[in-house]
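Hi X.,

You mentioned you wanted examples for the new student's onboarding notes, showing what a folding record looks like when two proteins sit in one file. Here is a clean example. The first protein comes first, with its sequence line followed by its structure tokens.
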Amino acid sequence: MITTDIANAGVVILGGTAGVGLECARQFAAGGARAVLLGRNAERGAAACAQVRAHVPGARVEFVPVDAMDPAATQRAEVAARGMLGAINVLVCTTGPSQPPRLLQNIPIEQIRPRLEEIILPPLHMMHAVLPAMRAQKSGAIINVASDAAKIATPGETLIGAAMASILLFSRAAALEEKRDGIRINVLTPSLIASTPGAELIFAEPFSARMFERAAKLAHLGVPEPEDLASMILYLGSPAGRRITGQAISINGGISVS
């Protein structure tokens, strides 16, 4: 029988201190996995670990600080996390933009490169960092969280869409490269996730708030919560997802079909 048993798996979660990443930590911990959360802020990291332990008494969860924009820092974080876990079986990357959707004409040209890089580079750097050890152990699962903006052109998401499409394509290409070594790489592409820092960012600005309010009306199954994405991530990281790789799965409550 195929199960979602992830007991004792070593899980690394980039962006694990809030939103989808934090909920992933809770769900993996509840299943008996050991987790290392990665993020830039040590205080938030300690608070996130405390939240996971409060939700799952006895949870084995630690925090490693990293600025995943720095390739050398991600390599150091991988070594530290692997040392704590023994092996990294699952990598989850849930980072995102620091700015809400805006029309391209309203984005100063000098901000284009940093806005693209802050979305593209953290999951790419972290994926690159964990792959050598995963190849050596002949197994591993990587789940990157992107956005439906990678699939559907939307006004206000010119830069975000381009960056998310990059995540989607490098994940799929890497899935083809790594499958011979038993490594699976998949992507989740939500549209709007309620109760997250990303949602707060979007609804704090009138333009993006109006855009996503219209989108939310199309989510007749309900606007997804972090729990919805975390449940799919746990599935993909577990033995139940052993035949799934290179896929981009939209969890969006019916906002779009792509």
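Then the second protein repeats the pattern, sequence line and then tokens:
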Amino acid sequence: MRRALMSVAVVSALAVAALTAGQATAAPSAPEPVQPMQFGMHVPDIAQGTDPSIAYGSIRLWDSGVAWGQVEQANNKYWWNGLDAAISNANSQQVRTLYVLGSTPKWAASNTKQGTYPNKGAASMPSMKEWKAWVTAVVQRYAGSIEAYQIWNEANLTTFWQGTPKQMAQLTSEAYKIIRRYDPTAKVISASSTVRLQSAYKKFFPAYLKELKKLKWPVDAIAVHLYPPSKGTPATRAGYITQVQADMRKAGVPASRELWDTEINYGIKGPGSGNPDKDIEGPTAAAWVAQTYLDNIRLGVARSYWYFWDRSVDLVGIQMFDGTLGSVGFQSVYTWLNGKFYTCASGDVNTCQLGDNADPQVVAWASTGSGTFVVPAGVTQTCTALNQCTAVVPGSNVTIGSMPQWFGIARS
């Protein structure tokens, strides 16, 4: 607690040096340190025992072979083996599980022509009776083993949902009641909305929030997917965060409800023909992954789940598996932030102060272009998100670009 108070209260030479970079604007200090679960991951083969070589703190079970229709393969006929294995392996890796309760099984679909993934009819509205029975079965079986339940995946896209925002809010409310009854400490996460498809986002997201408000906000967090267009960057994502937060304020979302980004990557094809798929490789991959989690604490996103840890796949722009520079960036930012109190500021050079006078630490990066950063007093070393370290001299000027750099005391 003493260190927490120092980090929040002391305006040290470290903080002053950080704020001199590019007319930075300070953000509120963190009341709590960064937690491991803020570093989320998708691991499609988790049920088969895949264990990422990097440190992460939470997992989202989607595209893992354990969707509703893959578990309840016929009405009241459950195949629990895959979900049991996925949760058991996640628990053995000491990471927290977020489970997506939708989509509708084919046998429960009101219209089998609505949606094709992970089965025909997956985007249709289930009967409330079947939905409640499913949620009850899952929560009763896994109470204490699943940290959080997400209602649906990308409900603003007709690929995944063709009901109304009101119907999705009703599903959310009924699931909330069941989860609170059988596992009261578990978190309830809203259906996610993809932001980059702006017309679909604007049609669904505000209307869904309006309906959730009528039902007294039966969620603990609001979820979005912050993939930029294929040509976008972390700066594009930061703009989306600002947009979503403005929409949440306009809807009257209580401040106690967190904002979660439950899928993120870059370079994914679309929207439109002007955004072909794009590979983000080399140092840029490490830089953008690190920026993603730094922007979370700078801008107020409580959690992000990287999509995904798997062998090379054309779908995503930044590959994440053993030996990739994306995984190096993930591990670096996890090491920098995990367990740290912080005070962040935005400017030509963004900064997050992590240490205090006795242990000065700052991370600096530019969302666009570059800027000058003054090395704080007491600092002896800088390390990039590629974990490449060099000595520095306090008071000297360093040019900072898109590659995040940690500044602190050299560790033996």
